[in-house]
Write a structure and sequence with these properties.
Layout: E1 34-42, E2 45-51, E3 59-66, E4 69-74, E5 78-82, E6 89-98, E7 110-113, E8 124-129, E9 135-136, E10 139-147, E11 152-159, E12 162-167, E13 172-177, E14 184-194, E15 199-201, E16 205-209, E17 216-223, E18 229-232, E19 241-245, E20 254-261, E21 275-287, E22 296-301, E23 316-321, E24 326-329, E25 332-335, E26 340-345, E27 350-356, E28 366-368, E29 381-384, E30 391-396, E31 401-406, E32 413-415, E33 428-436, E34 439-447
Bound molecules: calcium ion (2 copies).
């Protein structure tokens, strides 16, 4: 730039100066986000994603709307919407904005429904029949109650750890013919399962099954009040048995029913650890039900073949006590040359010829750790020094079988402190029973939780 006057004088050029026009304001909004998807990732979370918008300058971010209300703004093209409720439908949309605050229109909506909250609570079953400790025979009722936070899918019934029935609907009850199974101690337990597969076990009900369907009537005799009597099996009976009743044993007239047993309760695993069964037995029943006031003498015969492998001089008679499910040895006399055993008893029930069991050689057997402290990180009880083939069984002091195993060649077994259902046993004293070749022995192990 220069100045001039009327005389035509022109000044020198001024210093130069420059200026740009100002940038025009951004009034263009980003494009509308496309491809919005909503996916339920869990019962409490929905995952969103969409494709990036474009802008004449630059996209700054996206607003995310749930059910019409903005819940967040993000620079990302995805969002995880946590904290949702189960079993609920949600609708989402997003809009893009730029640095000038221009906001696109809302995207198309995308919806997702969260699933129901998973059921992690197991049902709670309880055995309602048979009653724990009951003595049963014939056809019995078996039943369980079961409840669940959502619903019980089915109840499984187990006897001695074996599945015997599955019921899909209440009432969870059925009848069972116990004559189809063995006599002796049986454990019943129910397992309830819900639709999510959660399950739990009831407490076990231990019962004694006594069915004498294979007994054989050997004699029936009516005895006058206070009279003495000798009741002997008839000549056609399969075994010679008898009972000698002294005078004054019964105040009134009674009928004595003498039976030969072809089937009888097994020796009690704990109480009869020193006795072996022979299967040679008899039963005496009195009608009306009354026990003799005096000791009677009973006699049971056997064949050579029945006791071939036994020391017949040591045979004895034992009486079955239904209350304890055990055989109680009687004051007995064995007559090896006459193939018979006699004994005195003032209680009529089941009688069996039994033989004493030799003890397993326990010199090398170790049980450790004992006591067993699971809370101290101990995982198992090791039992070693065992002859191969030894049967090892662990019982509660009430005689409930918790675990059993046959010792392998290595001579060592390990118990994890759980019962057959996998449930950790309570603190207490447990009996470890060993049997090998007719020899038996019991040791103890204590569990301290
Ligand atoms: Ca823009
Ligand atoms: Ca449940």
């Amino acid at each position: 730039m220069a100045a001039y006057d009327v005389a035509g004088n022109v000044s020198a050029q001024s210093s130069s100066a420059s200026a740009g026009t100002p940038a025009s304001a951004d009034a263009a909004a980003p494009s509308i986000p496309q491809g919005l998807t909503a996916t339920a990732a869990s019962f409490s979370q929905v995952n969103l994603s969409w494709t990036a918008s474009t802008d004449n300058v630059a996209v700054s971010g996206y607003r995310v709307y749930r059910n019409g209300a903005q819940i967040t703004a993000t620079a990302s093209t995805s969002f995880q919407d946590a904290g949702r409720s189960p079993s609920t439908a949600y609708a989402y949309a997003v809009a893009a904005y730029d640095a000038a605050g221009n906001l696109s229109a809302l995207s198309s909506a995308a919806s997702a429904s969260t699933p129901a909250e998973p059921d992690t609570a197991a049902p709670e079953p309880s055995m309602t029949a048979p009653r724990n400790g009951a003595a049963v025979s014939g056809t019995i009722a078996v039943s369980a109650g079961a409840s669940d936070n959502v619903g019980v899918s089915h109840v499984e019934f187990y006897s001695n750890g074996i599945l015997i029935n599955t019921l899909a609907a209440a009432p969870y009850a059925f009848t069972l013919d116990t004559t189809l199974g063995a006599n002796g101690n049986h454990t019943f337990q129910a397992k309830a399962v819900d639709a999510a597969g959660n399950s739990s076990w009831s407490q076990a009900a231990g019962v004694t099954v006594s069915n004498w369907r294979t007994s054989e009537v050997a004699a029936i005799s009516t005895i006058a009040a206070s009279a003495s009597a000798i009741v002997t099996s008839t000549p056609t009976a399969s075994r010679d048995i008898s009972v000698t009743i002294p005078a004054g044993s019964f105040a009134g007239q009674v009928v004595i029913n003498l039976k030969i047993l072809h089937d009888m309760p097994p020796p009690h695993p704990v109480a009869n650890s020193d006795l072996n069964s022979t299967g040679i037995g008899m039963e005496i029943r009195v009608a009306p039900t009354v026990q003799p006031a005096n000791y009677a003498t009973i006699e049971i015969s056997y064949t050579d073949a029945e006791v071939a492998r036994l020391d017949r001089s040591k045979l004895l008679l034992a009486r079955y006590d239904e209350g304890s499910a055990a055989w109680l040895p009687l004051e007995s006399i064995s007559y090896p040359a006459q193939n018979k055993v006699t004994a005195r008893t003032a209680h009529f029930s089941l009688f069996q010829v039994m033989s004493p069991a030799a003890a397993v050689d326990l010199d090398d057997i170790r049980i450790y750790p004992n006591p067993f402290y699971p809370s101290r990180g101990q995982a198992r009880v090791t039992i070693d020094g065992l002859p191969e083939g030894t049967k090892v069984k662990i019982y509660t002091i009430k005689g409930e079988l918790l675990w059993d195993i046959t010792v392998p060649a290595m001579g060592t077994v390990a118990w994890n402190g759980r019962n057959k259902s996998g449930r950790a046993v309570a603190s207490g004293l447990y009996l470890v029973y060993f049997e090998q070749g007719g020899n038996k022995k019991i040791k103890k192990v204590s569990v301290i939780r």
